[in-house]
Amino acid sequence: MATVQVSEAEKVYILHGIRDDLRVDGRGCEDYRHMEVETDVVSNTDGSAKVTLGHTAVLVGIKAEIGKPRPLIPNEGYLEFFVDCSANATPEFEGRGGEELGTELSNILYKVFNNEHSLDLRSLCISPGEHCWVLYVDVLLLQCDGNLYDAISIAIKAALFNTKIPRVHISSDDEGGKEIELSDDPYDCMRVDVENVPCIVTLCKIGHRHVVDATLQEKACSVASLIISVTHKGVITCTRKVGRGSLDPESICEMTEAGRRVGKALHSPLMKLLQQEESLGKKRQKVGFLG
Amino acid sequence: MAVDMRLPTVIKAMSLSVSAADRKDMVVPGDVITSDTGFMRGHGTYVDEDKLTASVAGEVQRVDKLICVRPLKTRFNGEVGDVVVGRITEVQQKRWKVETNSRLDSVLLLSSVNLPGGELRRRSAEDELTMREYLQEGDLISAEVQSVFSDGALSLHTRSLKYGKLGQGVLVQLSPSLIKRQKTHFHNLPCGASIILGNNGFVWLYPTPGQQEEEAGGFYTSLEPVSLSDREVISRLRNCLLALAAHKVLLYDTSVLYCYESSLQHQNQNRLHWPTWCLQGNGLVLHARSVQTLKVNR
């Protein structure tokens, strides 16, 4: 992650501010920065979304391909994640610098999204044991200003909502093998049900309190963070602690409760926004990257 | 706890009523400035097939026979006498390296700082060994440019009681071209906070110090908690600065104050909305007000 240097006096200022629930930019401890979500920005993908959270910008593209299902689970499709930390975000990511962060992010994304509780993977199956839909989710980090997990999870949820998978018909051809036909109508597609897809909330422990959506300066003052993925019903699906400091069990309980509250509140504005965007249809003025 | 999610909107370009006489000569890289060979080429230009062409995006400045292009967005090019706010990156033998948003790290020599206690004496070997006790990596300082080395690196000094190590506050990093050159860059704003507008684009906001205890060259930093009202003022000022920078308004004490006063209308019912208000901008109001004052001052 990109790091900034902070002086001791600045750290003290930030710490005291968080203690009084007034952060440097005027937010409270559990407030998010201004977020902008736009879907369907990349034309040659099946679903895409761009999320800007403060100065952090993330682009997600989803492509659906037909592949062979996993041998142990023949009647489900699956997702493949790849996170690319581009040097656009910070010079530290130049060359292979961003690889470590990219693998860490994609491992967590596998844990959070690629299971039957988040997505109905059976709907991605075409014929059990032989063909299934594989969703390749590619995440591109454009700008990095703290709180990557939250931005990535919101972008993935928006991109999955936007994904249109073409409908297929299976017919048996002359030699007894199976033939797959994609329907001719480009608008005949199935959508992915994103109701249970969780959102990730990162809570950083600074001093004796925790903050949601930390900027890079605040991250430099914290020693440990907790990453929680929460569904719209408030069910916690995955927890992970990152950072070189330690957390005592009481603060973990407190942070988990706060994370559940904050995560639950993220889903309804997001779904409302996505539905509003979809209802605009063709009239929507696409902003893209040069807005 | 609040979440503010929106669809992105296209930022409309503002059209200002600027007369043709005031309109400046803007060029982009590759634009031909003149085909007349009688001119001398200055910074930001090059000769391409006998035509003087711009190599940077900015405004053209003509001084007699010299043509140069001053870029709009550039690294800080220091001159002697500029006030800068910088961050210590390295502690070396007898000097500190300071990051000031310029092409090279600036240099702060041990002989250019005030010793604690205000003594004037020759620096000894002991002083060299205790450099880190005074300024460490990551510390912020305010300093003045003493001279410019031949390679373009700046040599700073803090040989006045108003310069030195900075205590608690907030640093905002902006472009150097947005800071207006003025007589003084240290202001105690009437809203309750103080500001240092560094020429290098680094702006430092801090709570106004109470009584002036015996100054030791800006050496002692107070770690007392800052009051909540001061914090609110500083947060609001920070958001105002970012809003002004996003709309490319020249920054000086009056413009920051106008922005602060306009933002007071959006009071605390929903704190989260200050930054969004700021970014969507009362840009037009600010431009109008600042143009008005410039006309008055002429």
Question: Could you explain the architecture of this structure?
Answer:
The complex is a heterodimer of chains A (291) and B (298). Chain A has one domain (8-280): GHMP Kinase, N-terminal domain (Ribosomal Protein S5, domain 2, 2-Layer Sandwich), CATH 3.30.230.70. Chain A has five helices and 14 strands. Chain A has helices at 8-19, 99-113, 148-162, 216-221, 249-280, and strands spanning 35-39, 47-53, 56-67, 78-85, 125-127, 131-143, 164-166, 168-172, 178-182, 189-191, 199-206, 209-212, 224-230, 236-242. The two termini of chain A are 27 Å apart. The mean pLDDT of chain A is 88. Chain B has three domains: 27-71, RNA polymerase II/Efflux pump adaptor protein, barrel-sandwich hybrid domain (OB fold (Dihydrolipoamide Acetyltransferase, E2P)), CATH 2.40.50; 73-166, Nucleic acid-binding proteins (OB fold (Dihydrolipoamide Acetyltransferase, E2P)); 168-297, no CATH class. Helix content of chain B is 21%, strand content 27%. Chain B has six helices and 18 strands. Chain B has helices at residues 125-129, 131-134, 228-246, 253-263, 273-280, 283-297; strands at residues 5-6, 26-27, 32-34, 40-41, 45-48, 51-54, 58-63, 66-71, 83-92, 95-99, 106-109, 140-148, 154-157, 164-165, 170-173, 186-188, 193-197, 202-207. In chain B, the strands form four sheets. Chain B has a five-stranded mixed β-barrel with strand order 9-10-11-13-12. In chain B, strand 12 (140-148) and strand 13 form a beta hairpin. In chain B, helix 3 crosses helix 4 (253-263) and helix 3 (228-246) runs parallel beside helix 5 (273-280). The relative contact order of chain B is 0.11. The model of chain B is unreliable at 269-284 and 290-298 (pLDDT under 50). The interface between A and B is large, with 42 and 41 residues. Strand 1 (35-39) of chain A pairs parallel with strand 1 of chain B, so a sheet runs across the interface. Chain B: Pfam families: ECR1_N (PF14382), KH_6 (PF15985), S1_RRP4 (PF21266). Chain B: Keywords: Cytoplasm, Exosome, Nucleus, Phosphoprotein, RNA-binding, rRNA processing. Chain B: Residues 75-147 form the RRP4 S1 domain.
